[in-house]
Each structure stands twice: as C-alpha cells, then as structure tokens.
Amino acid sequence: MVLLQYNEFLTQVTILAQKVRNESAFTLTFKQYDGIDKPTPREGRPQHPEPAENYCLIRMKAKNKKLSTVVKKSDITKVMESYGKIMKANMDGLKKVKRVKNKSKALQG
C-alpha cells in the first residue's frame, strides 16, 4: 500500500476513478488514526503516550491498486471539500431507484 500526501492522494483518486468508471468500482474508507503503528504493550510494560493530535486515515482500493493517506485534523475540511467535488464529477452512472407510492402496492409485489 502506498502512503501519499493528501494532495497527491486526491489527484490519484481522480485518475483512478476515471479509469475504473466503466469497468469496475472503487472503495474509499475513512478511519480514525492516532499515529501509533505498534501493537499495544503487554501488562506491566509502559503504555503508549496519548497522541497530541488525531489524524484521519483514508484508504482507496480499486481492482489491484491500493492508496492511502494520513490527514491532520486541521486539514480534514479541505480534503473533504475536494473529495466531494471529485465524487460529484465521477458519479454520473448511478441507477435510479424505483419508488412505490402506496404500501398496499408494495405488499402485492
């Protein structure tokens, strides 16, 4: 998995989203990240210090390509605005949902 700066990550997300538009799908996951990469210590050992700042880990997976980035809490608004623009530009192939007007019609089939 490749760890990128968030500016590079967003450009790669745009490129990959356009590549897989007709062929397949991609997934993005957001996860809280405290900056500690090591497992928790056993009992009797000193614990990890509390992080000074929380981060957000963002991962993208498309076919066999994996990307990730770590974003500071202060930069998350910029990243989410850019992410929203990318998604609006690339979500043109969504299927329309059929809605049923009455519950009785829905029960009939």
From TrEMBL:
Pfam family, one: SRP14
UniProt xrefs under InterPro entries: Signal_recog_particle_SRP14 (IPR003210), Signal_recog_particle_SRP9/14 (IPR009018)
Protein species of origin: Chironomus riparius
GO molecular function: 7S RNA binding; endoplasmic reticulum signal peptide binding
Taxonomic superkingdom: Eukaryota
GO biological process, one term: SRP-dependent cotranslational protein targeting to membrane
Alphabetic keyword roster: Cytoplasm, Ribonucleoprotein, RNA-binding, Signal recognition particle
Chief location of this protein within or outside the cell: cytoplasm
Subcellular location: Cytoplasm
Stated name of the protein: Signal recognition particle 14 kDa protein
PANTHER family: SIGNAL RECOGNITION PARTICLE 14 KD PROTEIN
Family, similarity comment: Belongs to the SRP14 family.
GO cellular component terms given for this protein: signal recognition particle, endoplasmic reticulum targeting
Subunit structure: Heterodimer with SRP9; binds RNA as heterodimer. Component of a signal recognition particle (SRP) complex that consists of a 7SL RNA molecule of 300 nucleotides and six protein subunits: SRP72, SRP68, SRP54, SRP19, SRP14 and SRP9.
